[in-house]
Specification:
Chain lengths: 216, 216, 216
C-alpha cells in the first residue's frame, strides 16, 4: 500500500460540498429568471409577488451558504482548498443579495417605465447566471470538464464586457434625456444595481477560474 | 500535574482584550445617544456640537481598535480565536464609522426636516447599540452567560428586521411624496446611512453568535 | 557559520516584488496626472482621450497586481510578510480603479462645469500619488530609508485631512448653491469619488506604515 493511498483513507475527498454549491447556483438562476420577468411586467400585484419570490430565493441562499460555511468549519478535508469553497459560496451569496436589491429598488421606487437598456442588462444577468450554474455543475468533475468550464467562464467575461457597454449607454442616455430628476435618481440606482449584479457574476467566474488553475 | 494544567501555564487566557472590546462598545452606545439627540434637535449650534462629539467617539474608537489589533499581533494566546476578536473589533469600529457618516451627512446636507421614519430608525440604532454593549459586557464570562448573550443577539436581529420595514416605508414615502428633488437626495442618503448602521450592528451580533457557537 | 546565516541561504529575500510594486506606483502617479489634466480640460475630444488613457493604466495595473499575486502564491519567502505585499498591491490596485471611476463619471455625466473644489481635490490626489510613489520606491531599502518613508506617509495623512475639509466645503456648497438637481447629482457623485481616491491613497500609506512598524 503506497503512502498516498494510505493518506487518502484518512483524507477522503469530501464530496458533500458539490450538491450545496449546485443548490446555490440553481437558486441564483431561478432568481435571475424572476428578475427578468419583473422587468417586463406591468402588473403591480404580479411585480410585488415576483419581488417576494426573489427575496425567498435570497433567504434560501443565506441558509445554504450558512450550511456550507458550517461544514467547512467542521470538515478536515474539502474537495478544493477550504478558501476556494468559501469564496465561491460567498460570491454566489453576494449575487443573490444584489439581485434582491435590484428587485427591492424596483418595488420601492416604482419607476414610471424601464428604459430598454435595463431590459438588456437583465437579459445579460439571466444568461450569466445560467452559464455560472453550468460551470458550478461541472466542478465535481473538474479534471474531465476542464475545457467546458473554461468556456463558461469566458462566456461570462464576454457578457460582463457587453454589460459594461450597455451600462455606459444607459447612464449617458439618462443624464442627457431624462429631465425629471426624481425619475433619473430612481433609474440611475436601478441601473447601477443591475451592473453590480453582472460584475458579481463575473467575480464568481473568476473564483472558478482560479480553482481551475490549481486543480484541473 | 495534568498536561492540560501544564499547558495552561504556558498559554494563559489573555483577558486584556475584554476591557478593550467593552470600551469600544461603550463608545458606540454613547455615539448612538448623541445621534438620537441630533435627530430631535432644531438648534443649529447644538447640532454642530453633537456632530463633533460623534466624530470624537469615532476617533477614540479608531485608537482602541488600533490597540486591539496591535495586541492581537503581539499576543500568542487570545481568549477566543484571534480572528474572532479581530472581527468583533473591526465591525464595532465600522458601526462607529457609519454613525459618524450619518451625523456628517446631516451636518453637510442640512435637510429642512426629519421625517418621522428617521426618528424611529435612530431609536432602533440606540436600542441596538445598548443590546450590543450588554452582549459585549457578558463575553468575558461566556460559559455562564450563554443564554443572556443569545437573548441580546436575538433582540438585535429583531430590531434589524423592524428597521428593514421602517426603511422600506421611509423610501416609499420619500419617492411618492417628496417633490423637491434636492431634499429627496438629502433624505434618501441619510435614511440609507441609518439603515446601514442597523445592519452593521446586526453584523456585530452575528460575530458574537458565531463566537457563542464555538465557545459556549 | 551561524544558524541565522545558514537559514538565510534557504530563505533568500526575494526581491522581485519591489519592481512590481514600483511599477504599480508609477502607473498610479501617471493616472493621477491624466486625471488632473481631465479636470482642467474643456475640449471634449481630449477629455475622451484622457479617459481612455486612465482606463489603460487601470488595465495595466490589473495585470501587474495579477502577477504579484501569482508570484506570492508561488514564492516561499517574500521580502515582507506575504500578507503585507498582498495588501499593498491590492490597495494600489484599488486606487487605480477609483481614479478610473472618477474619469468614467466625468465622461458619462458630462457636468456643465467643475467647481473649484474638484480642481483642488484632483491636485491633492496628484500630490498624494507622488508621495506614495516615493514611499514605494524606498521600500526595497526599508532599514536605511525609515525616516524618509515615515515622512511620505505623514505627508499623505496631511493631504487626506486637507481633502476632508475641501470635500465638506464642496458638498455644503453644492447643496446650498446648486439649484439644478441633475447637475447636483452629477457633481456630488464625482466629488465623492474624488474623496474616495484620497482615502484609498491614505489606506496605501497605512499599509506602508504597518510594514514600517514591523521591519524598519
Amino acid at each position: 500500500m503506497k503512502i498516498n493511498t494510505l493518506l487518502s483513507i484518512f483524507a477522503p475527498k469530501d464530496v458533500k460540498f458539490f450538491p450545496m454549491l449546485e443548490e446555490t447556483a440553481a437558486l441564483l438562476s431561478q432568481s435571475s429568471a424572476y428578475l427578468q420577468e419583473l422587468f417586463s411586467c406591468d402588473d403591480k400585484a404580479h411585480r410585488e409577488e415576483l419581488c417576494k419570490l426573489i427575496k425567498a430565493e435570497e433567504v434560501k441562499g443565506d441558509k445554504v451558504t450558512g450550511n456550507i460555511i458550517h461544514e467547512l468549519n467542521n470538515t478536515f478535508i474539502t474537495p478544493f482548498d477550504r478558501e476556494d469553497v468559501h469564496a465561491l459560496a460567498d460570491v454566489m451569496d453576494d449575487v443573490l443579495d444584489v439581485i434582491n436589491r435590484c428587485a427591492q429598488k424596483v418595488q420601492l421606487y416604482q419607476p414610471q417605465r424601464f428604459p430598454s437598456h435595463t431590459v438588456t442588462l437583465v437579459e445579460v444577468i439571466k444568461k450569466g447566471s445560467d452559464e455560472l450554474q453550468s460551470a458550478v455543475n461541472e466542478l465535481s468533475n473538474i479534471k474531465k470538464t476542464d475545457l467546458r468550464l473554461r468556456a463558461h467562464c469566458k462566456e461570462i467575461k464576454k457578457l460582463e464586457e457587453e454589460a459594461d457597454t450597455v451600462y455606459e449607454e444607459a447612464i449617458t442616455y439618462l443624464f442627457s434625456q431624462e429631465t425629471n430628476a426624481v425619475e433619473l435618481i430612481k433609474l440611475k440606482e436601478i441601473i447601477q444595481e443591475l451592473e453590480k449584479t453582472v460584475n458579481k457574476i463575473n467575480s464568481a467566474a473568476k473564483v472558478i477560474t482560479s480553482i481551475l488553475v490549481k486543480y484541473a
